[in-house]
Amino acid sequence: MEFPIEIKRHSAAHVMAAAVSRLFPGVKFGVGPAVEFGFYYDVDVGRPLSTEDLAAIEDEMRRIAREDPEFTREEVPIDQAIESFGKLGQTYKVELLNDIKTKGTTKLSEEEQGELDAANPSTVSLYHTGSFVDLCRGPHVARASQIGAYKIIKVAGAYWRGDVNNPQMQRLYGICFETQGELDAHLKMLEEAEKRDHRKLGKELDLFAFSPLVGSGLPMFTPKGATIRRALEDFVWSLMKPHGYERVDIPHMAKTDLYKTSGHWDKFSDDIFHVSSKKTDEQFVLKPMNCPHHTQIYASRPRSYRDLPIRYSEVTKVYRDENTGQLQGLSRVRSITQDDAHVFCTLDQVKDEVKKIYDIIQKFYAKFNMPLDVRLSLSDPSQPQKYLGDAAVWEKSEGILRELLVELGLKFTEQKGEAAFYGPKIDFVAHDAIGREWQLATAQLDFNLPERFELEYTDVDGEKKRPVMLHRAILGAVERFMAILIEHYAGAFPVWLSPEQVRIIPVAERHNEFARALAAEFSVQDISAAADESVESVNKKIRYAEQLKTPYMVVVGDKEIGGADFMVRQYGQKDQFAISKTALIQKLLDQIKNRD
């Protein structure tokens, strides 16, 4: 029997845990889920794990795979499980079991819920792999030899349950694929990704910074980084404006009542930053999302069917109280700049509006040469507690988006359980230069928020009706998209995105004044240029410009001052080319205008 790769990855986590238990008697285990491309397990072995330890654990995994024990499932009463894991000294497992017993699964993270079978809260399921026993809802492969090709790739610190106040454990990461060939290809990709790490390049190129005085997960963008951000925001706006979007502006905080009405409070209250006033009894939060604010702009005056569609657009920050252990460069932060927009329309207008959104998304990602896959993200009927609204509304919403994708002739997959809590969505998965997939753009259909906020418009027959709400993102979170873009281009941005488009390199000190004047002439044309007036040699100046990945380098000396054509170096090209000043300016202006 062949098993899905997700099951193999989850089973590999158990085999790795079994290997750790053999090598480190007395080890305490946290959780060990399958993740994208592999698996991890949080362990507490009493000392830091070394590179040699990782190799030994992987060797022990292979020994277990050769022994080929079965994965066998056992259902036991929860009190019996608490007693058994207590005798084994598995304090973290006991804590999880006590939480499920007293609080249910709603307060557990998704990874923790994978440890427990919530279908019957009075019992839990255990899986035996040889002598190793683990708390898990499964499913798993039949035998340990069936987990595929795998490798342990790193260990990192991880606070228990993501809380800095809890003990720090070690998170062992592994990758797992069907075949050795797929594993080798992924390892090669990881090697390339390490070279492109946006955290390293961001520092080298002076794009953003973090400060312990400001706080973890709160990035600050330098002039160069801010230049890239503005270029991206301007590009998105240039695509949206022809479709009738209008800009709005909202505050960075709101009363808790807003999010209680929207339903976000019940779903995400643990992830919201709370703000209190010493002058009133009102309770506020830093906004975790923008859609509830936008509903209130819509609700601020009477609306007619003649007004619809209404399209509100905004680039603004939201704030999420992420665990410090989950923060990672720009990829996961606490202050998130959203390229956000919401459309209020009639049911008959939904398909046309989503087509407009798709047109924007297509044009945006084509410019970055990032192919898109399309996914219809649906609700999971087996977990209705995760969603707002009744089943009929969801069936109607999902049907509309499915029909639209068929009409557009798009190839798409359907993913149960990936919908937003208020409605289904079309997700666009972009592929970067080294083949990684990123879910970025989205168009979401929402009948629920208009109902919860009692939004209305007067129809042609004079009757009050509810509008439909569309949520859409093109690049998603600006911070995360910048991280992806830095790695996509390996820091060598195209001319229109580059914070420094031309570097003027004078041959000697007597040429500095000409270089300075030339840089100013470029700048007047809105071309970002800088003159390198350092005392270094020309070769060192060229190498420095290459480290900055500046698209064009112009070396100027006596001949150029005398009117000769410029000899221009282009980043990534071996050969120089000769071009007049006027032609170079026009070339740059054309590339900036066409976003090349």
How much of the residues is beta strand, in percent? 25-35%
Helix count equals 19
Shape: globular
Q: Output mean pLDDT.
A: 92
Q: Do you know the CATH topology of the largest domain?
A: BirA Bifunctional Protein, domain 2
Spans of at least 5 consecutive residues whose pLDDT stays below 50 are none
How would you characterize the overall build of this protein?
The protein is α+β, with helices and mostly antiparallel strands. The chain folds into 3 domains: 191 residues, Threonyl-tRNA Synthetase, Chain A, domain 2 (2-Layer Sandwich); 211 residues, 2-Layer Sandwich (BirA Bifunctional Protein, domain 2), CATH 3.30.930; 92 residues, Rossmann fold (3-Layer(aba) Sandwich), CATH 3.40.50. The protein has 19 helices and 28 strands. The protein has an 8-stranded mixed β-sheet with strand order 11-15-16-23-20-19-17-18. Strands 1, 2, 3, 7 and 8 form a 5-stranded antiparallel β-sheet that branches. A 5-stranded mixed β-sheet has the order 25-24-26-27-28, with helices on both faces. The longest helix is centred in the first third of the chain and has 19 residues. The model has no long low-confidence stretch (mean pLDDT 92).
